[in-house]
Amino acid sequence: MSTKLMIVDDSNIIRSKISRTLSRHDLEVVATACNGEEAVSLFMSTRPDVVTMDLTMPMMDGLECIRALRRLNDKVRILVVSALADKSTAIQALMEGAQGFLCKPFTEDELTDSIDELLRG
Amino acid sequence: MDEHELHVFIDIVSQYFSRQTGREPEIGTPYLGEPAALPVHDLTGVIGISGVRKGCVYFTAPKDMLRNLLLQGGEMDVSDDNLSDMAGEIANTISGNARKHFGGDFLISVPVVVAGCPDSIQMPRTVKAYILPLRWHKHEAVLVVSLQ
């Protein structure tokens, strides 16, 4: 059974890039969301195993969304994919419950490596 | 803004193009622009800056360049929506990466993308705007940084 993935990013081209790359990597994209609110509403109906999460988004940002997803499910694995390159943001995301942090711009290899690391736990 | 901070943005822009396309852009000589007469191309991704610094960062490029960047990244949908998204994402990535230098209190907005009309871009009138011209694959674009 393939791993179920939800992609959360306000950029269509980033959602598309992540989907293209990870679909080839035996992950099934079960949901895509362009902000945190949409992600929370899709989460319970699609029950993803892994979430890639942008941070700077309208409506509900990534950190708030991570907190909300953690309240719904403490087992989901979350990889933050963000342009915010300062250490304090990465630390804050990890403290909120993300397990990994990938800085934009990223290559396909960096994305698959980060997902592999996330799944290895 | 000082010379060192300008170099931060030059390095980020160079790294962005190198990492995404495998080809470094040629960065032209930066210059100061008048807030009322700043360069714009077809699509402009604008990021508002608040927190420890206040101002604006924008990336403006012709559609041909954005189309080429999408195709280089493996994106076959080169619709106008995706071209706008590309302009916004470049501005967002450059501004977000700048937090490595400016710190976590360098707050960035979500991108706003403007087509053509320069009147829609709100720049601080009293702050110098630094213009970084760049050329990539024969396409010319500009990064504008205006920070108090």
From TrEMBL, chain A:
What keyword terms does UniProt attach to this protein? Phosphoprotein
What is the protein name stated in its UniProt record? Response regulator
Which species?
Answer: Chitinilyticum piscinae
Domain (Response regulatory): residue spans on this chain? 4-119
Which positions does the record annotate as the modified residue 4-aspartylphosphate? D54
Gene3D superfamilies given in the database record: 3.40.50.2300
- One example of a Gene Ontology biological process annotation: phosphorelay signal transduction system
Question: Which InterPro entries does the annotation name?
Answer: Bact_response_regulator, CheY-like_superfamily, Sig_transdc_resp-reg_receiver
Its domain of life reads: Bacteria
UniProtKB/TrEMBL annotation, chain B:
Q: Which domain of life is it from?
A: Bacteria
InterPro entries named among the record's database cross-references: CheC-like_sf, CheX-like, CheX-like_dom
The answer, when asked if Repeat is one of the entry's keywords, is: no
Task: Reply yes or no: does the keyword Flavoprotein apply.
Answer: no
> Which keywords annotate this record?
Chemotaxis
GO terms in the biological process aspect are: chemotaxis
Where is each Chemotaxis phosphatase CheX-like domain found?
A: 44-134
PANTHER family cross-referenced by the UniProt entry:
CHEY-P PHOSPHATASE CHEX
Instruction: Tell me what this protein is called.
Output: Chemotaxis protein CheX
In its UniProt entry, the species of origin is given as Chitinilyticum piscinae
